[in-house]
Amino acid sequence: MALVSLGDMAYQFALSRQNTTLKQGLQTSTQELTTGVSADLGARLSGDFGPLSAMERSLATIQSYSVATTEARLTADAMQVALGNVTDNMRGLQEPLLLAGSEPQATLIRTAGIDAQQKFAQAVSTLNSSVAGRSLFAGSATDTAALVDSETILAHLRALIGAQATADGVADAVNAWFHDAGGGFETVAYQGAAHAAGPMRLADDQILTLDITAESSGIRDVLAGLATAALLADDDLLEGDPTQRSALAKHSAEALLSAEDTIASLRADLGAKQERIEDIEVQNATAVTALEIARADLIGVDPYEAATRLEALQTQIETLYTVTSRVSRLNLADFLR
Asked: Which residues form the Flagellin C-terminal domain (predicted)?
């Protein structure tokens, strides 16, 4: 059998080329083990990238919905908290007003009025809440507060009822100011948009609208009841007549009791939408998981096989380094032995 010998330079070149090949293989195996994805997708997919592209598009679409669902969840949660705070304010005022309505005593009535004034201010402030710079109850006008400040509203109401001499007259005037189309509430108090914020697409077939605004009838009911009670803080209201002032306190308490049902209905509808958002988030997460599994089956590598290849390459490189080191130390005397 004929033997082929290599010169020193040729041998060194062969070792160098083998070293480069092994290093490239090591880099590829390390990449595959780290990412779990085949380094040569063309070979893995036999040149057909169609299924992979479809999966990538679906994943990108669903993951874009996660931004919308997160925004919807945060907004709905914040709205629910705000409405809960308004409800608590309203409930906390009912007992003092009922007491003032049953006992025509100036001190009781004025104290209830001052309490109502504070709670009205808190309610207005709460309805002007925002999340991530977006106003919650201003409809599509997300860059502005929903309402003017509470004192501006009360100032308009005081001017409106100045000539009223009975509790019924005051209550009717305030109620009309808040509820009449084109009335004071719509032209003075509410600064938001007439329409709700636009619908949010949370999935391919799921659209959600959070349409509660400070103009919603349930919220107007609460504000009207609180504002009517807040006017009792003025001792001169109804010419200081304790009987009429007591009657107005009773009327305010009854209005707030009635408003509790309408605000509860708003909160229930909002709660149903919160549950729907949660369901959609779960569905989207499930779809992402399924697509990622299918994608891994298509282009993924077996981690055990990748680790085995990596270990084998490391062994070959170590062996090559040992051989190269010995060859580099070989001298003429060693060669002739």
From this structure: 259-336
DSSP letters, 253-275, are: HHHHHHHHHHHHHHHHHHHHHHH
pTM of the model: 0.75
Q: 239 falls in which pLDDT band (50, 70, 90)?
A: confident
- Find out whether 279 and 69 touch, Cβ atoms under 8 Å: no
Q: Which long-range CB contacts under 8 A does 55-59 form with residues at least 24 apart?
A: 55/291, 55/294, 55/295, 55/298, 56/295, 58/287, 58/291, 59/288, 59/291, 59/292, 59/295
**For residue 312, what are its two tokens?**
């084998």
- Pick from 74, 185, 201: nearest CA to 129: 74
In sequence order, the β-bridge partners of residue 37 are 300
Pairwise CA distance, residues 223 & 117, whole Å: 11
Contacts of 72 (CB under 8 A, 6+ apart): 200, 202, 208, 210, 277
Give the model's pLDDT for residue 301: 59
Residue 42 token pair: 């063309």
Give CA–CA dist 167/165, Å, rounded. 7
Residue written as token pair 């679409």: 61
Percent of the chain with pLDDT over 90: 59
How far is it, in rounded angstroms, from Cα 142 to Cα 259? 26
Beta strands at 200-203 and 130-131: parallel, antiparallel or unpaired: unpaired
Q: Backbone phi, then psi, for 19, in 5-degree steps?
A: -65, -45
Task: Tell me the domains of the chain and their CATH numbers.
Answer: 81-272 (1.20.1330.10)
Q: What mean pLDDT do residues 327-332 have?
A: 54
Q: 21 by DSSP, 3-state: which?
A: helix
Categorize the per-residue pLDDT at 336 as very low, low, confident or very high, splitting at 50, 70 and 90. very low
> What is the C-alpha separation between 173 and 137, in angstroms, rounded?
25
pLDDT band at residue 230, thresholds of 50, 70 and 90? very high
Question: What is the CB-side half-sphere exposure of residue 19 using CA atoms within 13 A?
Answer: 13
